[in-house]
Specification:
The protein has 227 residues and is α+β, with helices and mostly antiparallel strands. It has a domain of 49 residues. Helix content is 24%, strand content 36%. The strands form two sheets. An eight-stranded mixed beta sheet has the order 3-4-5-2-6-9-8-7, with helices on one face.
Length: 227
């Protein structure tokens, strides 16, 4: 199909771990006294303040993407493998019968997706997340048509999203058998929108300083989602 993995934007406990290759990250954690557990050769497990698991590979960061793998919990490994390979075109890189995992990828140089059998249903709780891929814009209608033909869930049909002063990007958002959201976006426009803004840090600091989300949730007597 020609998909190219761009990012894994996820925020949820059903993401079983994010693997990064960076000796600098390991060094920083040790220097700051952040808890690290050695779980393999040159491999450490650490957790974000909210409990989100990160696996750090103690090797020099690659020139491409330091994110090596994202692991998702699934309720039926065979069913999920069929969905991601037969329908979405990922290739099986490795199977581990003992750990009940399957490692998938679109290409050797791209971040990999690992599916791990939970042995039951996947509870998303109050967290949310989305895995994002890019592909040539012309392939999006075919993807949508295939999912309709196979009676698969489409959360957002093919839509064009305008960004003021910038390009228009097209996306299709799907859900796999366990409800993991998957966004496919037109690569050409996405790359334009992904360019580094020289004012990015300043704008982010300003937005964070002006954030009123806690007040909004309190006012509406609603609980703010947490990972």
């Amino acid at each position: 199909m020609g998909w190219e993995s761009i990012s894994f934007a996820t925020t949820s406990w059903w993401v079983r771990g994010l693997t990064l290759q960076s000796s600098q990250a390991v060094s920083n954690a040790k220097r700051l006294g952040w808890p690290l557990t050695e779980v393999g050769e040159a491999l450490y497990l650490t957790r974000a303040p909210g409990g989100y698991p990160f696996y750090l590979v103690d090797k020099e960061q690659p020139h491409s993407d330091p994110v090596q793998k994202v692991c998702l919990g699934v309720s039926d490994l065979q069913r999920s493998t069929h969905y991601w390979t037969t329908l979405l075109g990922m290739k099986v890189v490795e199977k581990n019968e003992e750990k009940k995992t399957v490692l998938l990828g679109f290409a050797d140089t791209h971040c990999k997706l690992e599916l791990r059998d939970n042995g039951g249903t996947v509870d998303h709780g109050t967290a949310f997340g989305r895995i994002a891929f890019s592909c040539p814009r012309e392939q999006l209608p075919d993807l949508e048509a295939l999912m309709k033909k196979e009676n698969q869930k489409i959360l957002t049909p093919l839509v064009s999203l305008d960004t003021p002063g910038k390009t228009t990007v097209e996306v299709v958002i799907l859900a796999d058998p366990d409800g993991h959201e998957i966004c496919f976006v037109g690569d050409e426009a996405f790359r334009q929108l992904s360019k580094v803004d020289p004012e990015g840090n300043k704008l982010l600091d300003k937005a964070m300083a002006e954030d009123k989300s806690d007040e909004w949730f309190a006012k509406h007597n609603r609980q703010k989602a947490a990972a």
